[in-house]
């Protein structure tokens, strides 16, 4: 059997720096398990724009479709803020999500014990937190038509369309129920059925899928605004949260901050199974390109390394290796090795991005 293949798209800002640390972990896996990855690198976002004039070249898209999994760093930066909408760095990421049909975006928010003090909330509210947001990623207001800025009489009108089909809702719901069965068996679905027809349909379809296929899973529904409030009031009431593309974007940033640092949070975007049985998949840290600290060796590589751990688990059936990587990150934090985003006391000295990566590899050993 040939080696599993990975396409790495470091992207912009701190993307290349944190990805260099992931490469160390990939090398460790190659040296210490039976699995060697075939790794290729390519460009996305502003880096792709600089070379090709678009945020994702067609050849890169083809490569992404052909590999077993894609790892992405981050896209965007002030240099690209004034580009035409169609070539903005974010379009590269959205094209990958859409054309690979990555409809299920898993965003775990887990509070590591060593970081419970970093949350903006009181420690007892977040200690031990372990929730998973399942965000629908290929439809809704991010992609619905019509969209655009149009002239309407003597003024302009901006239009985006919040559109969901039954099958789009059903497949996202299935993925949330499947995950819940492997966790605490609870799903809370969030929409705005009180004001949006698409929200009413969302709730109906989630109920139908639940009754027909997943009646063993505990299901509740919440309006998304109440969900945001409950996330900061009592986040531990949740196990799996299922929601749409736009609400999921917002709620997942909110959940991320509960855990103390955006620098810790990985994500997986999964689609339908390919011929080899593996899902189409893209893994990326939730943090952005952080242009303010890019190129300075300050970024925390943990989120990107934990995203690779998710790849081991969800794409390569290497759950044990994934757990090992996660434990190594936790160990390093518990040992007090911290990048600047995680420093507590004044006078403490932060480690650099690459020292953090080295410490994680040392903990793996
Ligand atoms: C995210 C980001 C993206 C989104 C941007 C970069 C397009 O905020 O992954 O949450 O809005 O989906
Ligand atoms: Mg976001």
Keywords, separated by commas or semicolons:
single chain, 365 residues, Isopropylmalate Dehydrogenase, ten-stranded mixed beta sheet, 12 helices, 40% helix, binds 3-isopropylmalic acid, binds magnesium ion
Overview of this protein structure:
With 365 residues, the chain is α/β, with parallel strands linked by helices. Strands 2-1-3-12-11-4-5-10-8-9 form a ten-stranded mixed sheet, with helices on both faces. Strands 6-7 form a two-stranded antiparallel sheet. It has two domains: 1-110 and 262-365, Isopropylmalate Dehydrogenase (3-Layer(aba) Sandwich); 130-258, Isopropylmalate Dehydrogenase (3-Layer(aba) Sandwich), CATH 3.40.718. The radius of gyration is 20 Å and the shape is globular. Strand 1, helix 1 (15-32) and strand 2 form a beta-alpha-beta unit. It has helices at 15-32, 46-52, 58-66, 89-99, 123-126, 166-181, 197-213, 224-233, 245-258, 302-314, 319-334, 353-364, and strands at 5-11, 38-41, 69-74, 104-110, 130-136, 144-152, 155-161, 186-191, 218-223, 240-243, 266-273, 279-285. The model has no long low-confidence stretch (mean pLDDT 96). Helix 1 crosses helix 10 and helix 6 (166-181) packs across helix 7 (197-213).
């Amino acid at each position: 059997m040939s080696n599993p293949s990975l396409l790495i798209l470091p992207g912009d800002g701190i993307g290349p720096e944190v990805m260099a640390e992931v490469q160390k972990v990939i090398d460790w896996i190659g040296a210490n398990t039976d699995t060697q990855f075939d790794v290729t690198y390519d460009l996305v976002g502003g880096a792709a724009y600089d070379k090709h004039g678009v945020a994702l070249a067609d050849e890169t898209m083809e490569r992404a479709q052909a590999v077993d999994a894609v790892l992405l760093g981050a896209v965007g930066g002030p240099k690209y803020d004034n580009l035409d909408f169609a070539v903005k760095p974010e379009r590269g990421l959205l094209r990958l999500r859409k054309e690979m049909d990555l409809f299920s975006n898993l965003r775990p928010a887990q509070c590591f014990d060593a970081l419970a003090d970093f949350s903006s909330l009181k420690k007892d509210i977040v200690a031990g937190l372990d929730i998973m947001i399942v965000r629908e990623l290929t439809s809704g207001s991010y992609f619905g038509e019509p969209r655009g800025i149009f002239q309407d009489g003597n003024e302009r009108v901006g239009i985006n369309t919040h559109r969901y089909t039954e099958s789009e809702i059903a497949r996202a719901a299935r993925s949330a129920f499947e995950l819940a069965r492997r966790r605490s068996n609870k799903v809370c679905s969030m929409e705005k059925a009180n004001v949006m027809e698409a929200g009413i349909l969302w709730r109906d379809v989630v109920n139908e899928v639940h009754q027909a296929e997943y009646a063993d899973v505990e299901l509740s529904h919440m309006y998304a605004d109440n969900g945001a409030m409950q996330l900061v009031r009592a986040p531990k009431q949740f196990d799996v949260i299922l929601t749409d593309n736009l609400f999921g974007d917002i709620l997942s940033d909110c959940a991320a901050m509960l855990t103390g640092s955006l620098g810790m949070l990985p994500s997986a975007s999964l689609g339908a199974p390919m011929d080899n049985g593996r899902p189409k998949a893209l893994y990326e840290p939730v943090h952005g390109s952080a242009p303010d600290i890019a190129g300075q060796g300050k970024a925390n590589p943990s989120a990107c390394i934990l995203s690779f751990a998710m790849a081991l688990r969800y794409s390569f059936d290497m759950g044990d290796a994934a757990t090992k990587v996660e434990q190594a990150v936790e160990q390093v934090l518990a040992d007090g090795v911290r990048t600047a985003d995680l420093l507590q006391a004044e006078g403490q000295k932060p480690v650099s991005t690459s020292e953090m990566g080295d410490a994680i590899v040392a903990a793996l050993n």
